[in-house]
Amino acid sequence: MNMSFLQELFSNITQREALLRRRTGNGLTVDHSHLLEACRALLESDGEASSITHASHALEIYSRLDDNSKTRFFERLGKDFSADPREIDLAYAAYRKDRENTALQRLFDACEPRRQELLRRLNLTAGGTYELVRMREDLLRLMRDHKDFAAINADFTHLFASWFNRGFLVVKRIDWNTPAAILERIIRYEAVHKIRDWGDLRRRLDNRDRRCYAFFHPAIGDEPLIFVEVALTRGLPDQIQPILDTESYDIEDPEAADTAAFFGISNCQVGLRGISFGNFLIKQVVQELKQELPNLKNFVTLSPMPGFRKWLESTYLDEQVALDPEALATLKQLENPDWLQDPELSERLNAVIRPLAARYLLKEKNRDGQPLNPVARFHLGNGAELHRINWQGDISAQGLQQSTGLMINYLYVLDNIERNHEQYITDHTIVCSSSVRDLSRRGRKLFKGETGK
Amino acid sequence: MNMSFLQELFSNITQREALLRRRTGNGLTVDHSHLLEACRALLESDGEASSITHASHALEIYSRLDDNSKTRFFERLGKDFSADPREIDLAYAAYRKDRENTALQRLFDACEPRRQELLRRLNLTAGGTYELVRMREDLLRLMRDHKDFAAINADFTHLFASWFNRGFLVVKRIDWNTPAAILERIIRYEAVHKIRDWGDLRRRLDNRDRRCYAFFHPAIGDEPLIFVEVALTRGLPDQIQPILDTESYDIEDPEAADTAAFFGISNCQVGLRGISFGNFLIKQVVQELKQELPNLKNFVTLSPMPGFRKWLESTYLDEQVALDPEALATLKQLENPDWLQDPELSERLNAVIRPLAARYLLKEKNRDGQPLNPVARFHLGNGAELHRINWQGDISAQGLQQSTGLMINYLYVLDNIERNHEQYITDHTIVCSSSVRDLSRRGRKLFKGETGK
Amino acid sequence: MNMSFLQELFSNITQREALLRRRTGNGLTVDHSHLLEACRALLESDGEASSITHASHALEIYSRLDDNSKTRFFERLGKDFSADPREIDLAYAAYRKDRENTALQRLFDACEPRRQELLRRLNLTAGGTYELVRMREDLLRLMRDHKDFAAINADFTHLFASWFNRGFLVVKRIDWNTPAAILERIIRYEAVHKIRDWGDLRRRLDNRDRRCYAFFHPAIGDEPLIFVEVALTRGLPDQIQPILDTESYDIEDPEAADTAAFFGISNCQVGLRGISFGNFLIKQVVQELKQELPNLKNFVTLSPMPGFRKWLESTYLDEQVALDPEALATLKQLENPDWLQDPELSERLNAVIRPLAARYLLKEKNRDGQPLNPVARFHLGNGAELHRINWQGDISAQGLQQSTGLMINYLYVLDNIERNHEQYITDHTIVCSSSVRDLSRRGRKLFKGETGK
Amino acid sequence: MNMSFLQELFSNITQREALLRRRTGNGLTVDHSHLLEACRALLESDGEASSITHASHALEIYSRLDDNSKTRFFERLGKDFSADPREIDLAYAAYRKDRENTALQRLFDACEPRRQELLRRLNLTAGGTYELVRMREDLLRLMRDHKDFAAINADFTHLFASWFNRGFLVVKRIDWNTPAAILERIIRYEAVHKIRDWGDLRRRLDNRDRRCYAFFHPAIGDEPLIFVEVALTRGLPDQIQPILDTESYDIEDPEAADTAAFFGISNCQVGLRGISFGNFLIKQVVQELKQELPNLKNFVTLSPMPGFRKWLESTYLDEQVALDPEALATLKQLENPDWLQDPELSERLNAVIRPLAARYLLKEKNRDGQPLNPVARFHLGNGAELHRINWQGDISAQGLQQSTGLMINYLYVLDNIERNHEQYITDHTIVCSSSVRDLSRRGRKLFKGETGK
């Protein structure tokens, strides 16, 4: 039997865990100065034979530092592990003379902060990649109070972009046959609609009408990078609660589905923030689903609209200027805790809120000219179309609070993705359905004296 | 059963093969200008959504170019995909002013040749990494006549060092249960002692007294990067022929071995030249062997000494100055094709050649002050010790021709590796056994008026 | 990559699940007569090409029967699918004549109930083996009121003994990397110390100081047959509560353990009752543990003593004849719900109960002359030694109720297992420690006028 | 990573190999009497705990016996390990009285030769199943001179039918990613068109237009039981040489194929003769192919017709009675070694031989009324149709000698398989194409005064 082949493929991952475990807690107190010393030794080693030992030692020290020591370590890293100005000056002078590749290369090398070589060498250890991801997680947290750590962050970002190149990522189906050690992380990392317990998870992985896929990186082993949850349905879903319900089944056989609804996309590693995979994951999952279930016709999201209510309140309620008085009066009913139970009131709110949501998604832009809403930015940037705004799409406390219960369908029309994406990139054109456009027009009329943008 | 998990882990590798196969030969003639155009489109795309399509397209074109077009492509790559001098000047000016990290980072970014971003984007495609390795293989070949491609090579090297970081490599045991697709490559890539056929390979993988390990990279799938062949023996072996003999067995049970003899280390990917793994592989293999076979006491190589005979002839025979006339007369008998069959003559040659070999290994240095012999450089640099010089260690035609039949044992003494390595790094100190030192002293006396270095 | 090999190895198991799922509920009502008809068609088919279809059909009908129909099916199976008396008579007459092998074989074939061929053919379908195990589960349940089903049960037993031959079983380590689908079954089937939830399970599989192994059968896929839970400890454990405690750790590193304590052995498949694997599993697990952790010196159980309290009450309390009055008075204090909290009372109870437990284990026999206690029968029959009786070894409600809180250590001394086993088999000799023997002697004195058995 | 799960699944198989290897050759001479003694000890052991030791010991002795000792062992096995006549007489007497299930069961048990229990216990050891298959291989060989071993063979057959139940078999795709240890066996076991070397094998496993599938049994590990080779073609192939040609490709993309041509089915284990899997394998392979390649329309064999030329010569040439003189004269030209190179002669032979082949396949029957030709028997029995007789279908020396170069296409029409099979079983009706029927009619006219059967 050919087990040894695969077995050894993963043996080092297991070894890593062993190493990680052993390393912690051998007693001695350490602080950032020990770590800086270890980093210097690592950079001075010849870069190959003794590097692993030095690198392991450095990471071991790091793992035992408290936030204060970490902060001081990053401070020194920013200052002492930069590039050598004299080298740069000399290299630039030479470059100015001939403007040739060789001189450029020397200048490039001179400009590279020594931190980058340091990070590359720390990455030599088994398990090092993951520990560097965790280190950046610390860095991002501490950076809030230390804007000058941005340079260190740039070094991490530069290297992570290479190390987490999409060509190195592996997509894996997650289901009830996945090892518990991984499922446990899925529970932990689900960020959109919290997974309550293993029973909830089991429902979300039920082969009959659910799918889940994650990206993994071989050097990080069983830590997922990002995952997406899919419901197989008949028709486009307009509410999240039936999907999250652990008891009800829309279909019993995946072949009966015509729609794959992406209802949760969760990034797992804070330390990889800004290294984006979501776009690649969605595309690959669409491919896998099409292959497995040729009956699927629609690929759509059922997405939240975080920030909408806040925007609604700040923009319209506070200023009280622009909005039509009647609409405004209706909106204020949102503070009535019973509006959801009052069909008539609910209907009136619907008539005001959905048009405003359409305007929010289509017209409200950030400084780059892209939609203010981050979810819209993500899907529209991927080439999706703004398809439908669903009233009472998420009636959970969180759903009501974040987006007055609205949920959005973004549609991935396979033949149009490329074109939509290009248009969006070029001039931020948003492709949307006629129904959303109608809503938006109705929204315009809710303003006093509004003549349309 | 939990197959899907592993299955999907490798699914994209299979898909890659499919892609690679499909891509070739859709008929239209292409040249370097099409490729340059595709590269520009790739760099101009926003880097995410449409990149994979552009990158695949570019790689597909590349695969269909002839050497002439490749040369012209690399020429343009060197010139047109460099950095922007104006950007550099501006960034440098800003940097000069404050010497701060932010300015440095801008300068670093400005100096990075656009080629690097291009290569990163080409790497986005499934299978892209391997195709870039192959592209560098072309580059190294064409570079012989185009020294100016060195800048491009530097870009490749810079990125490969990140992508092929030791932390991403996976060591795997190769044996008779390994898939044939991989074994076939082992046969192809063995560079030290050619594998004649599958029967020869089978002998070399026999669990009873052989081991073989290779490094793999997850994004390259079943292409090995480097592998090492090990014979388990009783005592240190002094001849390669019994090891290569497919019929004879020194031991029948690996537990009976006290020695692991590394008799072949082969780099597989020309395109990864200069990205070194051998040192890491040897260390990891020593660990795996110790764990599997606690009885092992000696870790040693049985290594060739390529270039020795050439050195011998050029240095001593040609110049005819330094060498003792009697020794010289003996050496000339090497041209007698029957010396191997003549015990008495063979013994006389032994008395001259081994001492000279000891001097060759210990005293002949390259410009860096390291041993002239590349194999010695590799093992001594890894922390091994020069242990024994074996007369008639390799009596094959190649062995006789390259190194007058000598083979070398380099010994890896686990407790000394680190120290030996440090000494070697610091001042190129070579640790050697007393017997080799004695030989070297005898060698000195073979020179007329030699007073010793 | 060599995934296809393993992948296909399990593909049919996956297909089975699909098949099983599809099969249920196509609407039509069926009863035992349909099943009997399908069984006849199966037996009449030529046994190869069309068998699978017929067999699948029959199993599908069976899966939809209620208990009443199943009972009637088994009734007819007992009567109509027996052997042909005329064939038997003829074959016996021929056999009487020459007493040769050929005639014997004919007689043997004639005597084989047609049910056995029926079961063999039902087993042709993918997933059939498991469905037959489930069918026997039904049979055993219904047999309570239908003693005449014993003949059918004999046919199942005969075939299962072949199909579940130890040579076909595979032992697998169960840990936190095991697929959730299997872990879920471990939770469900644990019969000794109930697993409360996934958190409890996680603790029981913690690599640091726990191990778990199960037997699987390739044709049954991910349904475990039996599994054993092991705690790695320093010294022989005398209490179960610390082991079940999800928070406390006796050791942090498995290498630190000198003892492997088997604290739970659970049979999973009711339908395999009487087909014993436990003995094989324990032996194989001991081997695996010794290989992984050479420091282990003791292999011991921490076992319950179900039935002891019932025996105690029925034998001594009710008859009130034999027992010493003082001891009897003490024993009655067991009904005092607070005895556990009263150290003095507890100590007095200890002085009476442990000696009686020793006698119970050593002297109370069933009709076969083996220990009355089933757990003792199992371990002593496997070659273990009765080592220690632990006071307050299990102070859970169940532990107190079943065995007044006692837990037993049976010791597996590797060098003695074979000999102990042989002695036990020959004349039911029980090997026990001197401390247990002392207890037993003390127990004897608790009887009025007892002079020893 | 979830490797341990699969890893352990196969660990015992590896252990088996180790065991098997160690066992051989510990020096002492053994003969059948030692083996008989070991078998008695095994049967007398209580059947569980000590059985494995006894069974391993017995198999170890067996492996060291020569044919003479084996013969004597089987002789005693036939005589001394039969059933007890007194038991049988008593059980039969009891059975006669009440004819009930309980009595029947006792009689059945009494009739079972003790050999069967012996074989079941030998099967307890790891690797035992395979050693028993090898033992039966010996038995079948020695049986040629010892017809009385038939009883022992019947015991093996009875148990093998249970152990190798189709439900336990696993189909696996064999390709270039299969471990070499398995491919080596494919080379060894190919019985229809010999595989010359690894290059030949590689061609036969080329994903582009070849498939290969094998049945495995979990307890036998990597020993295939039977395998089938498939060529993907456009149209039904009529010649084997282009398929065996390692250089030529009919198609480059499996999706382009409309036909799956089974050109080799090889049983691997002589010791499993009579335990048939071929029928199941073909059906499962058809399913797998349809799923992978929905474009496939035809499932057909390209089969040899072993025995045809012998039949031709013995029947027509020797008797010289029935055949038309002209046809006879033509047939005699077969002895002309150059007929293949002579187009005109070849054409004349074609006109005689193919019609006779049609008659041979359709009209020549064995004692059971089935086709004389074993390959025809197999495929027609499986529900295939006799589709085409190909002139110069196999012009290898063997093809010419066995069947005058003819090759047969048996067609598996999915919708008709079941019906064809039933008809064949009922009255040996052969379904054939109109072209074959025409040939057969023409064949009739080749006889003097033939008026048709």
UniProtKB/TrEMBL annotation, chains A, B, C, D:
InterPro entries membership: Malonyl_CoA_deC, Malonyl_CoA_deC_C, Malonyl_CoA_deC_C_sf, MCD_N, MCD_N_sf
Gene Ontology terms for molecular function: malonyl-CoA decarboxylase activity
Domain Malonyl-CoA decarboxylase N-terminal as annotated: residue spans: 81-164
One GO term (biological process): fatty acid biosynthetic process
One Pfam short name: MCD_N
Domain Malonyl-CoA decarboxylase C-terminal: 167-412
PANTHER family found in the cross-reference section: MALONYL-COA DECARBOXYLASE, MITOCHONDRIAL, PTHR28641
Designated name of the protein: MCD, Malonyl-CoA decarboxylase MCD
Species, as recorded: Marinobacter nanhaiticus D15-8W
